[in-house]
Amino acid sequence: MRIDSHYLQGALEELGHIGSRADQRGYYRLAWSPDERHAHSWFRDRLKALGLRVWTDGAGNSFGQWDIGEGPALAIGSHLDSVPSGGNYDGGLGVLSALAAIKALQDSGFRPTRPIRITAFTDEEGPRFGTGLLGSKAVAGLLDFDQCKNAHDDKGRSLAEAMAEYGFSIDNLPSVKATLPDFYGYLELHIEQGPRLENSGVDIGVVTDITGIAQILVTFFGVANHAGTTPKEDRHSALLAASRFILALEDFIAQEPQIVGNVGSIEVSPNAANVIPSQAKLRIDVRSPNEHALYRAVAWIREHAALRDPDATVSVYHQVSPAHMHTAWLPVIENAAEGLGFSHTRLVSWAGHDAGILAHVIPAAMLFVPSHRGISHAPEEWTAFDDVLQGAEVLAETAKQLAGMGEVHRP
Ligand code: HGY
Ligand code: MN
Ligand code: MN
Q1: Mutation test of ligand 1: which of 80, 83, 93, 320 has the most ligand atoms closer than 8 Å to its C-beta?
Q2: What is the DSSP string of 111-148?
Q3: 3-state secondary structure of 207
Q4: Both 153 and 245 in a single domain?
Q5: Which atom of ligand 1 is nearest to the CA of 352?
Q6: Which residue has its alpha carbon closest to ligand 1 atom 3?
Q7: What number does the ligand 1 atom closest to the CA of 377 have?
Q8: Contacts of 29 by beta carbon, 8 Å cutoff, 6+ apart
Q9: Which structural domain, as residue segments, surrounds residue 9?
């Protein structure tokens, strides 16, 4: 069985033309944007060209199914949205590798005993509405529907309005979970988004666990006043409190081996050099593969925000629990890699993924390919095509094994 390298390379290049901007570097395939929806319609055309049954569900997820065999389908896929100024490989490579893998299976004359479904989930990243992993959460029945109904982007556009622009009603989101019984399990190829594989010269990463994530909005308050005339002892700057908090957070995380954290954005009002800030909003991302450590990080943030400003508000707007990959499937990926002559190693994913949501309700597994210099969520994100091809071959071989396997227990 061989991956059609021209097909895969061509698909990557075509996707690479969707979501780039003339005046800015990187990709902007943000959820429910014209570019992201274009990527999905382009992808569905590719699915149709492979002779698959194609549809979209109420969450805007795109599917193509090889209707063969019987029973629930093995799903293979990832996401097509990106972070702002992101790369073309995060998510996109998993979706296109799934395309190439199913083409290789079809071309080889393989006939699976169960259907195989290629999926592209909506809004995996979340930066526009704070609704990360929306598409996979909707399928898994783990969506916070009230959060979705109240979600707005930084231009005041609601998620409901953005969805309606493409013919999707937000009211249909809760019904998407009814499709879950059609899923036998889920397999995802993804770039590692870190330096471990490239630094160790290993071809394939076999994911054991996916980190938990909490994204938190912390708002500090001050008193707006004149930057020149206000006596020093009377100044109450929200930005100063936020700055002290950020440095303290950095010190806390530095001594916590199981926690990583990032303050990714700060909004200051009224945001003028000659006005003492009355408000400073921080968006924080903390992660741990250990549920207790993640709770400790959130508790630390609540406690120390109050220490810096008794009026500070803390709101956790996105939280996913750590997830274990389906243990029985790890050796299937490892055997596929070995059979193809590729090296492999087990590792924990510090990036969140759709597989980390689905693993709570169906068997799920992930494999990684190296990221050059470990860079991701940036225009420099890149994976050598040899590594791309190796990953697609292991994905196809693993899918072939799983599509032929008997029933497995659901988590
Ligand atoms: O943020 C993440 O870990 C993923 O890339 N969405
Ligand atoms: Mn991703
Ligand atoms: Mn990402």
Answers
A1: 83
A2: --SS-EEEEEES-SS-TTTS-TTHHHHHHHT---HHHH
A3: strand
A4: no
A5: 3
A6: 351
A7: 5
A8: 18, 19, 35, 36, 39, 80, 81, 82, 86
A9: 5-210+322-402
Query: Tens of pLDDT along the chain (411 residues)?
Result: 899 999 999 999 999 999 999 889 999 999 999 999 999 999 999 999 999 999 999 999 999 999 999 999 999 999 999 999 999 999 999 999 999 999 999 999 999 999 999 999 999 999 999 999 999 999 999 999 999 999 999 999 999 999 999 999 999 999 999 999 999 999 999 999 999 999 999 999 999 999 999 999 999 999 999 999 999 999 999 999 999 999 999 999 999 999 999 999 999 999 999 999 999 999 999 999 999 999 999 999 999 999 999 999 999 999 999 999 999 999 999 999 999 999 999 999 999 999 999 999 999 999 999 999 999 999 999 999 999 999 999 999 999 999 987 655 566
Smallest CA separation from ligand 1 atom 6, residue:
125
Same domain, 293 and 377: no
- Let me know whether 239 and 109 are in one domain: no
Kindly state whether residues 336 and 370 are assigned to the same domain: yes
**Token pair for 49:** 């060209």
Q: Are 250 and 327 in a shared domain?
A: no
Let me know whether 74 and 99 are in one domain: yes
Sign of the C-alpha dihedral, residues 230, 233, 235, 239? positive
Residue 410 placed within a domain: no
Q: Are residues 108 and 227 in the same domain?
A: no
Integer CA distances (angstroms), 144 to 151, 170, 294, 340, 357, in order: 11, 12, 19, 42, 13
